[in-house]
């Protein structure tokens, strides 16, 4: 069991192993010392990176997910005796593995958030029959693009951490599949899953826990940022606005994953109104408790909601799949009402922040930047002269399994928001960069 979880599929057998550190601690060090991790500080979470020191970036979001996930993992280890039996490599929860998965879960996101991902996928699919997807790009970075001393390809992470990141255990190229893993990395992931005897379509408990903690962070922290920015106004006029309620209902109905939440069992509009009313009433109560200080109220609201979600995470049997599932639990069963509440808060962040017309204007600008960068690099004869030499060297060494369109997508997706804007300005704006700037 120990060896199968700590096996490193990409690492040479002759590699030196540290006797002083656990294998998962080594993974943690490789992740936080990687350039990809550092670049998360320049990638948008909700507001554009650089919008202000207060707002979260992909980096701070990932760290917050990791903190929540590690604490929940330690509690579940203490309170679930079956975890101590370690009966199956996928039915184990190691806090360090969960923390590593949380740290790396957004590595594959391109500049400009979801808009950058959407544009790259559209271009690749339309012109080259390829897909781009952030979760799949995670594995491309971790198993191919990143380099470390002693390895030419990837970070050589343990099997437990790789499968802990794999919340969509599918081949992305399958017909109709929206999320998954690219074929180039799926071959290894599928083999690990086979060796672990993982049920088809099921994720490890560690991956499930990371995924739910990501949802907790999204539904609490992003709303805190929205309140701070004035996009979510804590008054009855805002929360009772029929246009807001209508948009939330439509987001729920149009979500391709809506089947997971049992919406057919509730009156969606009435539940949306109730969650919004309760949220505002809680704010007003805490506002008084915090001596009418808005900043303290924001932090206290966030802390209470994180605690209310995280404290209810537990492990249940999943008889339909013959597996286990991490879920929000009440009285020994999945708490669908709380799950739907979390989903409504996620949609509130999405509707008020992502779909704000000013944000959409910035996203249109982002779309233009990504499209123009693509046009500049996709002609190989010209692109090779305006892409940094170290990238071209890597391509030349590995072009047997690295097509030029995928290479260009890899290069653009690795950019921070600011770097994408800088390169765009050098190519198309009147402002020219200095030839002495380091890329």
Automatic annotation (TrEMBL):
Keyword Hydrolase: yes
Domain of life: Bacteria
A Pfam family the protein falls into: HD
PROSITE patterns: HD
Membrane-spanning intervals of the chain: none
SUPFAM superfamilies on file: HD-domain/PDEase-like (SSF109604)
Ranges where the HD domain occurs: 58-219
Keywords: Hydrolase
Protein's recorded name: DNTP triphosphohydrolase
Organism: Paenibacillus chondroitinus
Lineage per the UniProt record: Bacteria, Bacillati, Bacillota, Bacilli, Bacillales
